Amino acid sequence: xxxxxxxxxxxxxxxxxxxxxxxxxxxxxxxxxxxxxxxxxxxxxxxxxxxxxxxxxxxxxxxxxxxxxxxxxxxxxxxxxxxxxxxxxxxxxxxxxxxxxxxxxxxxxxxxxxxxxxxxxxxxxxxxxxxxxxxxxxxxxxxxxxxxxxxxxxxxxxxxxxxxxxxxxxxxxxxxxxxxxxxxxxxxxxxxxxxxxxxx
Length: 200
What we know:
Elements: H1 8-22, E1 30-31, H2 33-40, H3 44-57, E2 60-63, E3 67-70, H4 76-97, H5 103-122, H6 125-142, H7 149-160, H8 169-185, H9 188-198
């Protein structure tokens, strides 16, 4: 499988996202364009674009007259609510479009599962979190849920700030295999049950 070349903006965005998920920037940290531009050896433009993208995704927040701040993770009650809304979106999209998925889109889900497996084997927390969400997004897209993805990603980013799978990568991978196999085989009931067991 050939790798798709990344633009400078994409590289900077991905690195900052990884830093956020790995805890390099604690909640409440103010991020500075000039400092990150110097670190990455780029102009301030790609960093500014990364800030905009990551703000849309829900990781960062603009503070008036201050700059960009790393968002605080949701408190337990809010996280419980966010999780329930995310689950509603995923189960709704899967139920609505399960019979419309194609061989090609199912293959995309399988590739995402393989990337998750690689991340779990590497033990890199940020990559496991990113590949976890990528897998679920591929399922949404396979079931025709592209229109739901932006809202869904906002919810996921809030959950990722308190990712609960650290050190339990083997189990996380098994749960995603349990989602993929009935998804591939056309068993809607088992797919939904596995999704509900995974999202918590």
